[in-house]
TrEMBL record:
Domain ArsA/GET3 Anion-transporting ATPase-like: 22-304, 346-505, 518-629
Stored CDD domains: ArsA
PANTHER family noted in UniProt: ARSENICAL PUMP-DRIVING ATPASE ARSENITE-TRANSLOCATING ATPASE (PTHR10803), ATPASE GET3 (PTHR10803:SF3)
InterPro entries in UniProt: Ars_ATPase (IPR027541), ArsA/GET3_ATPase-like (IPR025723), ATPase_ArsA/GET3 (IPR016300), P-loop_NTPase (IPR027417)
Pfam families: ArsA_ATPase
Domain of life: Archaea
Name of the featured protein: Arsenical pump-driving ATPase
NCBIfam families associated with the record: ArsA_halo (NF041417), GET3_arsA_TRC40 (TIGR00345)
Family in the record: Belongs to the arsA ATPase family.
SUPFAM superfamilies per record: P-loop containing nucleoside triphosphate hydrolases
Length: 646
């Protein structure tokens, strides 16, 4: 099937430069959807069409080097065999450290050691890492030597909203205060650069925004949310690329023929519903896309209207013999040990990037634990919050039954959580100031500053975390299953210093909002660190980007918070009973290769979950799916332990 596009604008018109000034193309999308492949193919196509092109990635798991077959790294590098094309892989850790040093150095002659230490603590905020990445965007958005700059991984609405804090820069700079992204004074030099960069992002004559996703309903839902978030900031999405649909020629049995029909329905839905100037598609290949020939094929299909090439009958360089036995890689007994509660409440955290199936896996685990007689609560902190769709029952802000004995569910409503959090913080600040007899304090101004900080996306994370913490006080459950665990990024917000000078930051407000709040946070994090009480499971599918993103997130949790990964879930494994041809043999061999690498990278038991014809909906299907997932079928009914509430 050739590329599909809207009738009004072609994908080519979206990405091809049309003026004398440097233009920018941003590709956004979750890990594992082919965003880097599409970015590389687009940059290659532009260079082949005689545009001087720079390709930039800020992806924490970059694979440009693998795609082009040469070392790239943190410096601008010419791409071999392609005139007009250079690339750079920005290292997020290096960028963050460079940003911290650039911020601190000018202050060393002006501030004492204690004040410098305070600034260094502020700059350990996880928000600073996002600012550092944006800082690099700003650098490359002033590149007149290029006709076009292609960004693999666009700044999110979350990041751009950070750039708008505080909205009254001048007042904050004059006051010399702090924000959740560091000392306001440190941003004085950056103010105009950031404003100019945001103006450029909002200028659709110079900037094109493209989303890459898979032909799955959950992927489209997530893209629509992200696009809406950006739209509220004045950034319009012009291109949607749906990558990895099943080629018709390889779907020779009812299982894959049905999967393909579902994908085509999603593509049709996306064309009708998603508000983009153009839509384009590219099929799934038997192996990973690398090398100039395949990149040229992708670019030709997306931008020249050529038929995509799928070499169905040729083996890749993956050893097909390695695909024989997925089951031998799993340890069902070890999985059961991680899931089964002891004498105290057990907490299970299923985490991973969007689209890896963590909500389904978490709900399936909760269903099987409840069947085994354990009083179980499943909670989602995912903004998509589609537990209702999975269970086919209403799921609200407070725990309610979903129609099975021993099983309750709840979802954290972001708006309600934020409203509760705002009220709590503002009440605390008002109470804190009302008894102070200090004429130098402008109470109204202080409260106005706090209200402004509560518009930060950090406040949304803190509000969700506040509600999340409350579920550790739920009495009577043997097991609490969390769909989407807090990341190292979120947990580090709790570690922000509690006595910042000048401006009162979110961390101090949160820790001071109630007398026992700091102790409560500490107790929850200690419980999460305890492998006897908590199981952290990363859900992924066996491909490079999902694996590396999970690996990096797991390392962040361990290094920053001290939480170890105790279980890995490999989802969407191709079933051996279907797809009896070279195409799927190659895909299985590739999955086997990555399963081995997952085992090497993660020192944790492996839970395996097969690809299904349809996502399981309702308790009966969830129970049946649980019988297919490694370990869940072995969670046997027993006398539920007497629970000691935490």
């Amino acid at each position: 099937m050739a590329q599909s596009q809207s009738t009004t604008t072609s994908a080519r018109e979206v990405v091809e430069p049309s003026g004398d000034d440097t233009e920018f193309v941003f590709f956004s999308g979750k890990g594992g959807v082919g965003k880097s492949t599409v970015s590389c193919a687009t940059a290659t196509w532009l260079a082949d069409n005689d545009y001087e092109t720079l390709l930039v990635t800020t992806d924490p798991a970059p694979n440009l080097s693998d795609i082009f077959g040469q070392s790239i790294g943190h410096e601008v590098t010419a791409i071999d065999g392609i005139e007009n094309l250079s690339a750079i892989e920005i290292d997020p850790d290096t960028a963050a450290e460079e940003y911290r040093q650039e911020t601190i150095e000018p202050m060393r002659e002006l501030l004492g050691e204690e004040e410098i230490q305070t600034v260094e603590e502020q700059l350990n905020s996880p928000c600073v890492e996002e600012i550092a990445a944006f800082d690099n965007f700003v650098d490359f958005m002033d590149s007149p030597e290029y006709d076009v700059v292609v960004f693999d991984t666009a700044p999110t609405g979350h990041t751009i909203r950070l750039m708008e804090l505080p909205s009254d820069w001048n007042a904050e700079l004059e006051k010399g205060g702090s924000t959740c992204i560091g000392p306001a004074a440190s941003m004085e030099d950056k103010k105009q650069d950031y404003e100019r960069a945001i103006d450029t992002l909002q200028d659709d004559e110079r900037t094109s925004f493209a989303f890459v996703g898979k032909p799955e309903d959950s992927s489209i839902d997530e893209i629509e949310r992200s696009a809406s978030d950006l739209g509220e900031l004045g950034i319009e999405s012009q291109l949607l690329i749906l990558n990895g649909y099943l080629p018709e020629s390889v779907c020779e049995d009812p299982f894959f023929d049905g999967k393909r029909a579902d994908e085509q329905a999603v593509i049709e839905r996306a064309r009708e519903e998603f508000d983009a100037d153009a839509t384009a598609t590219y099929p799934l290949q038997p192996g990973e896309i690398a090398g100039l020939d395949l990149l040229a094929d992708v670019g030709g299909a997306l931008y020249d209207g050529r038929e995509a090439t799928v070499d169905v009958g040729t083996a890749t360089d993956v050893d097909a013999d390695g695909a024989a036995d997925f089951d031998s890689m799993a340890d069902a007994d070890a999985v059961v040990d991680q899931l089964t509660p002891g004498e105290e409440t057990q907490y299970l955290f299923f985490t991973g990037k969007g689209g890896v199936g963590k909500s389904t896996v978490a709900s399936t685990a909760a269903t099987k634990l409840a069947e085994a007689g354990h009083e179980t609560l499943v909670v989602t902190t995912d903004p998509a919050a589609h537990l209702e769709d999975i269970f086919g029952e209403p799921v609200g802000h407070e725990p309610t039954s979903v129609g099975q004995e021993n099983l309750d569910a709840a979802r954290i409503d972001q708006e309600k959580a934020l409203a509760e959090y705002r009220e709590q913080v503002l009440d605390h600040v008002t109470e804190m100031y009302e008894d102070k007899d200090d004429t130098q304090i402008d109470v109204d101004a202080a409260i106005a500053n706090v209200e402004e900080e509560l518009e930060s996306p950090c406040a949304e994370e803190m509000a969700a975390l506040e509600k999340f913490v409350s579920y550790f006080d739920e009495d009577g459950y043997d097991v609490v299953v969390f769909d989407t665990a807090p990341t190292g990024h979120t947990l580090r917000l709790l570690e922000l210093p509690s006595d910042w000078k000048g401006f009162m930051d979110l961390g101090s407000l949160t820790k001071g909002a109630a007398p026992a709040k700091g102790d409560q946070y500490d107790a929850v994090i200690e419980t999460m660190k305890d492998p006897e009480r908590s199981t952290f499971a990363f859900v992924m599918y066996p491909e490079y980007t999902p694996m590396m993103e999970a690996y990096r997130a797991a390392a962040d949790l361990k290094d920053q918070v001290g939480i170890e990964t105790s279980l890995v879930v490999a989802n969407y494994l191709l079933p051996e009973e279907y797809g009896d041809n070279a195409f799927f043999a190659n895909r299985r061999a590739q999955q086997a290769q990555y399963l081995e690498e997952i085992r090497d990278r993660f020192d944790a038991p492996l839970m395996l979950a097969p690809l299904r014809q349809d996502e399981p909906i309702g308790l009966e299907e969830l129970s049946a799916f649980g019988e297919e997932i490694t370990g869940l079928a072995d969670v046997v009914e027993e006398d539920a332990p007497e629970v000691t509430p935490s």
